């Protein structure tokens, strides 16, 4: 197994300490949330009233981690990287310049080593869409695991659609779109993307 794959497999170990830190700070925790205008997932979203924290889990503070926030910053005023090793001072300065906070996860605890700068020019439709996609996962759900076969945002949405239609068999796609957290732009795009699910449950 490559070093990169090793790092990917360890990222999930950062999730529980970050989840605990958010709960201790009165945030609701939503793991693996679909980004706006992207097929990628945000590892963790914390929500406390109108405040959103977007958190990506990485073993190291890297350029890749910084790049992941290019589109995420449309969705929230506050973004963090949660890392498993102490960043170098010059790396911290790069995150400071980008307005991204840093959380250091060590021995099961979380230290905020850099506070994020509040982004003022949030794209409200993007932020509203993110909030609409927030939904509770089972308590034993773990963020940061690599996607396996049969996993991903479309597959997750398909399962939620099936459950919703089972509970609401007469629901239209407009009602499904409003009632199921999803990353689609409209009821028609959602219906089209569901493919076989649409065929099974009907329009």
- Spatial strand arrangement across the major sheet: 1-2-3-4-5-6
In total, how many beta strands?
A: 6
Q: What is the succession of H and E elements?
A: HHEEEHHEHEEHHHHH
Low-confidence stretches: 1-9, 196-203
N- to C-terminal separation? 45 Å
Number of helices in the DSSP assignment: 10
- State which percent range the strand residues make up: 15-25%
Mean pLDDT: 80
Which structural category do the helix and sheet elements fall into? alpha/beta
- Proportion of residues in helical segments: 40-55%
Oligomer: single chain
Verbal overview:
- There is one protein chain.
- By secondary structure, the chain is an alpha/beta fold.
- The protein contains 10 helices and 6 strands.
- Strands 1-2-3-4-5-6 form a 6-stranded mixed sheet, with helices on both faces.
- The N terminus and C terminus are likely disordered.
Write the layout of secondary structure elements.
Layout: H1 3-11, H2 15-24, E1 28-34, E2 41-48, E3 51-58, H3 63-67, H4 69-72, E4 78-83, H5 89-98, E5 101-106, E6 109-114, H6 124-132, H7 153-167, H8 173-179, H9 187-194, H10 196-201
Parallel strand pairs: 3-4, 4-5
Antiparallel strand pairs: 1-2, 2-3, 5-6
Helix pairs in contact: 8-9
Main attributes of the structure:
alpha/beta; 10 helices; 203 residues; six-stranded mixed β-sheet; elongated; disordered N terminus; 6 strands
Quick overview of this protein structure:
41% of the residues lie in helices and 20% in strands.
